[in-house]
Write a structure and sequence with these properties.
The complex is a heterodimer of chains A (172) and B (426).
Chain A: H1 21-31, H2 41-52, H3 57-67, H4 71-78, E1 92-97, H5 100-104, H6 107-118, E2 132-137, E3 149-151, E4 154-156, H7 161-170
Parallel strand pairs in A: 1-2
Antiparallel strand pairs in A: 1-3, 3-4
Helix pairs in contact in A: 2-3, 3-4, 6-7
Chain B: H1 27-32, H2 37-43, H3 47-57, H4 69-74, E1 85-90, H5 99-106, H6 108-121, E2 126-131, H7 136-151, E3 159-164, H8 174-181, E4 205-209, H9 210-222, H10 224-229, E5 240-247, E6 253-258, E7 261-262, H11 263-270, E8 280-284, E9 293-294, H12 295-299, E10 302-303, H13 305-310, E11 319-324, H14 329-343, H15 349-366, H16 374-384, H17 393-416
Parallel strand pairs in B: 1-2, 1-4, 2-3, 5-11
Antiparallel strand pairs in B: 5-6, 7-10, 8-9, 8-11
Helix pairs in contact in B: 2-6, 2-9, 5-6, 5-7, 6-9, 14-15, 14-17, 15-16, 15-17, 16-17
The chains are: A alpha+beta (172), B alpha/beta (426).
Chain lengths: 172, 426
Amino acid sequence: MSVTPAAHPEGTEPYEPVFEGHRLEELNRLLARFPNRQAALLPALWIVQRERGWISDPSMAEVAEVLGLTPAYVKGVVTFYTMYHQHPVGRHFVQICTTSPCNLCGAEDVVKTFLKETGAGELGATSVDGRWTVIEVECLGACGFATPILVDDDFIESVTPEKVKEIVRKYL
Amino acid sequence: MGYPHKPHARETVVLSKYFGDAEARSLKGWKKRGGYEMLEKALATDPAAIIEEVKNSGLRGRGGAGFPTGLKWSFMPKEKKKSHYLCVNADESEPGTFKDREIMRWTPHALLEGTVIAAHAIRAEIAYIYIRGEFTEPLAIMEQALAEANAAKLFGNIKVYLHRGAGAYICGEETALMNSIEGKRGNPRIKPPFPAAAGVFGMPTTINNVETLVAVPHILKNGADWYKRLCLSNPKSTGTKLLSVCGHIAQPGNYEITLGFPLKDLLYDLAGGMRPGRTLKACIPGGSSVPMLNREETESTLLDYEGCVEKGTMLGSGGVIVFDDTADMVYQTMRLTRFYAHESCAQCTQCREGTAWTTKILERILAGQGKTSDLDLLLELSENMTGKTICVLSDSCAAPVVSAIKRFRGEFEDYIAGRRKPVLAA
């Protein structure tokens, strides 16, 4: 008879550390760039997000431990920077620029089309199938190529509502 | 506008010469195009002589403030008692600006060469290039170029590291950038102490913008006098500048001009003018933090530091945002203040509260619930947000509000009086 393990209450799952083996070596190489350990915090958080998709409280505690900081300090930094996810997001994370220059060129229509085509429905929400999270972001620094978007780490220029369907299909 | 594009005959192509030329990205390709010619020579030159040459060229910081670069370098301690650092500001996030992105995407070695020469000039052992987190492609290209240059051992004893930001406009402010490198929240610091005395890790530091540094090898190669002659108007504004043109314009893109070039010609000639059937209404010439101009002012502005000040605005980072007659100036002003409200680090009360309330009042006006007194209230708020905080983010939010109300007051009054249909839900 097979036993289905009971789901752990949130936050009590056994935590698997990120910084072991080659990832610890990666962090140690980063530490050599700076005169103190704290300076490796932003790069360390990027590694966590790359490996886990988001930065959980236990991950913040681990980073704090590894760099000799307090979990509260690490949380203070994580919450300052908008690119660090403090909760899980869809398999594909779409960031659409809607600041003035892109806004003038129709960025808000791109947002509407993305919300519809991905099934995400509303900004910041994740589609029911878990594939998509769509957010508006402030200036992506490519105003001459309105509307620029980021799908995960892919920077895509000159997106119009007509192109959205094809982009969404590409990432299915 | 994509690349490659044929430069307009009236452009002065120095920094952007290899934009669109993918072969220039590799070390081999860059050397073939004359890259790194000056590096070896510069590393063997006395730092003081390099600083003198850059001072004589008249080069001014291209990130927005326009501070003389050679003078900034000369602030570093004469007697070296501590580690010196160079921080390169590649956190390009000023709405309307997208020039540093193209420099890094197409000519990564140009930035590395300028960085190492500057580090040598200020006697820094380490240079951090701080690239905004969203610039995934420029970062990847810079990583590859740096790996190639390191393998070829081009940089002597100077170490160059790339540091990825994580989404915070304020980290483009130099002291916030240093805090961010130190693994802190990106809160700007109170000055003094200035970075040259106590910068990153408390050590003497210089912070330079990407576009500033890529000009340096050209100055050393062709001489300060050559650079000084690149000047169409005021002798205090020398060299070429990349202007990023965007918004309601036929051919958006980067255009490299000699300082003193007429803004009118940049828009109507180089960038192809307005879209068919449209007329110019307003223009922000230096990135969203500088006051906007109306049509008459735009058409009589010369693009240099003094020419923009003369019209009540600034050259800033050179992000030219164009608004044609279809633009809703009230809505666009709100979009700009929403940007600043989102990006405020929230340290100073005037900024944290001011950017948020400015946005709320503008949203109220756009929802048809504005009051006659709201415009005075916005101006009073803006007054309290100007010159009163640690950094200038708060001032930058006030600039579009004050300049838009001054020039387009009628559009605000139309919403308030109910002559215009609300565009936001109440």
